[in-house]
Each structure stands twice: as C-alpha cells, then as structure tokens.
Amino acid sequence: MNLAEIQRALRDQRLDGWLFYDHHNRDPLGLRILGMSAVGHVTRRWYYLVPAEGEPRKLVHRIESGRLDSLPGVKDEYSSWQELEAKLATLLEGTTKLAMQYSPRNAIMYVSMVDAGTVEVLRELGKEIVSSADLVSEFEAVLNAEQIATHYEAQKRLDPILAAGWQEMGRRVRAGESGANEFSMVEYLAAAIEREGMVTEYGPNVSVGPNSADSHYEPSRASSRAIRRGDFVLIDIWAKMAGRADAIWYDITWTGVVDREPTERELLVFNAVRDARDAAIGVVKDAFATGIPLAGWEPDEAARTSIRQAGFGDYFTHRTGHNIATELHGSGAHLDNLETHDERLILPYTCFSVEPGCYFVGEFGVRNEVNMMTRPGGAEVTGRMQMELVRI
C-alpha cells in the first residue's frame, strides 16, 4: 500500500477518507490495494480507514486481532455487535464524506463489494458514502513502465501467432486434414502461445459459421465444428508474458473467410464494425490529445451510434471494450454505455480493448478487437488493426 499516494488522491477528490471493509475476503479490490493476502481463516468483520490527512485507523475483532497488523495505523478491537457499532463511530470521528467499494444503484457492479446493510449503518452514523470507483481505477488500472512493456512484448509475440494460425487453418482445410476444426486450431494456437513464453486462460477461441454469432462461444473437443471451404471464421486470442504476476494482457479478435471472397452482406457488416471501432478510437485519441476528461461510456456511445447509423444497432449486444491490466478484464473503466453507464474516467497509463461486434444468430458474427494504451497527451492502438476480412 502506498499511503502517501492514497492520501494525495483523497485530497484531490475532496474526500475525508477511504473506508475499507471486509468479511470472508469478499473484497479482492481492497485486499490488492492494501497489499494484503486473501489466504488465512478470516471469519470476522474488519474496518480500515485511510483518512485524507493523518494516521490510518483499524478496527478488528479480538479473536482475529492480527488481521490488519501488516498495515500502518492505530488499532482498536471489538467483540459484540454493540461494541462494534460504538467503536466504528469513534473510528470515523472527524470524517463525513467517505469512499467505499460501493456503487449507487449497483450501476458499476465491478466495484460494488460493500453490502447494503453496512452502508445503512454508516449512513445512520451521519456518513456520506460515495463510490471509490475512480480511486480503484487509479490504484488498480494505472500501469507502470515495466507493466506497459510487458503488454507490448505480448503484442509482438501474439500478432505473428495469429497470422500463422490463419495460414495453418487454410493449409489444413485444403489438405482435407482431420485437424481442420475449431478445437484443433485452439490447441494449435495455445501451443504456439506457450512456445513463445506466454500464458492464456480458457482460450483462445475459434468460432466457425453460426458459432461466431455467439460472442462467448467456447469450442470443446466434443462439440468442435469442422472448418470447411466457404466458412466464415472468428478468432479471439489473448495472452500475457509467463512468470510475471504484474504482466499485462494483449487481447485481439479478427475474422475471415475460407477459400472464397466475402459476400456483400459480410462486407457490409464487417465495414460497419470496423468503422464503429475507429469511431471509438477517434474519441479516445481526441480526448487525450486535448486533455479533456473522458468517461468510459463516451467511446462506447460513439461506436454504438456508428453501428446504429449503419442499420445494425440491434445486433451490437455487448459493451465496446473492457479495461486490461494484470487481469484480462481489469478494474479500470470499461467502454460501456449498454450494460452499464460507466462514468469512471479513462486514466492516463491505462490499457483497454476496443471491440464492437454484430451478431446474427444462425448466420455469422463479426467482432473487431484492438487494444489501446493512454498517456498524458495521447493514446494509441498497440498492435495491428484489421482493415478487411482475412482471405484464408
């Protein structure tokens, strides 16, 4: 935990403090920010207040009194619920506006870790509880130079793997091999990822024909669909450098057709998705070039407006992008004005996907995914951009 930086951020946001609360390790965000482990037998509630000024304060149960000993600050203990509430009031003396892992109306559910009852108790104590969402982004999603380098290293290794995968798929199809199917190509790509010193998780994904219209399709050995001449194929592939807990993911999706030219409808949909991707990218680039604060919902709305104007709005059924950090779906702002109205700010030195898509059940689906990295004064796409359907 970087106490000085947390307190600076609290002062910047005009907050009296950041109140961490947990029970049974329910708040992984708080544990990571505080530098605490989730291991051990933890069965009692604890509170940890980081004030904007001064020394942190702890409140722990007597039978688990050492739970917060790794953190700085003064400690108090409780046993009964009456003592808990009385000492909680004492702990919070001098504060009014407190951030917690809470989201009004559960609007940003990714940060909503505190139960409603706890918030009720705090409000009865006269406290104003606000969302810690932007604080979480600052301490979970902002990347250092070494982490950014791991993302670009993964990009340099993964882009060629995908290009080789398309070629191998075409070779297998034209040779009539039994390995020309979704799951076998997943195995091929996964093996290449491992050879390049990277890891992936539950992937990659190769979806053929109607399966590409399922945005979360996962092929298995038992259900794998054959890949044949004339098929439409989507590949979603992601990886990060192995052996580094702080490594950052690289996550991309491309689409192509096997041994034929795309149909007019496929071209129309692909172009609509590509243009939506570029609309979102443009909003991000413009904001960071001019220094205008940008919320996660804004690039999503740009992409969604573009697809609506192309006539495919009903077929764009997921958010435009997700934060990327040490977790594939990180804790920073997502590009989302559909599933949530994500008002979290997109911060400098953060990474995220831009991946609009259109899905036609029983036919095919197109998703076009790139990653972006931001910095003060600018933002860029970190890898190759698909401009037309791959001809396999």
The fold-level CATH name of the largest domain is Creatine Amidinohydrolase
Annotated CATH architecture of the largest domain? Alpha-Beta Complex
What share of residues is helical? Answer: 25-40%
Q: On the 0-100 scale, what is the average pLDDT?
A: 96
Q: For the record, what CATH class of the largest domain applies? A: Alpha Beta
| Total domain units | 2
* CATH homologous group name of the largest domain: Creatinase/methionine aminopeptidase superfamily
Q: What structural class do you assign from the helix and strand content?
A: alpha+beta
Total helical elements:
9
Strand order of the largest sheet: 4-3-2-1-5-6
Distance between the termini: 50 Å
Per DSSP E runs of 2 or more residues, the count of β-strands stands at: 17
What is the strand content? 15-25%
Low-confidence parts, pLDDT < 50 over ≥5 residues? none
Tell me about the biggest sheet?
A: 6 strands, mixed
Order of helices and strands: HEHEEEHEHEHHHEEEEHHEEEEEEE
Q: Would you mind describing this structure in some detail?
A:
The protein has 392 residues and is α+β, with helices and mostly antiparallel strands. The chain is 33% helix and 20% strand. The protein is built from 9 helices and 17 strands. It has helices at 3-12, 28-34, 81-91, 116-124, 133-140, 145-175, 182-195, 264-290, 297-309, and strands spanning 17-22, 46-51, 57-61, 74-78, 97-100, 128-131, 198-199, 205-208, 232-241, 250-257, 323-324, 351-354, 357-360, 364-367, 370-375, 378-381, 390-391. The strands form 4 sheets. The protein has a 6-stranded mixed beta sheet with strand order 4-3-2-1-5-6. Helix 4 links the parallel strand 5 (97-100) and strand 6. It is elongated, with a radius of gyration of 24 Å. It starts with a helix and ends with a strand.
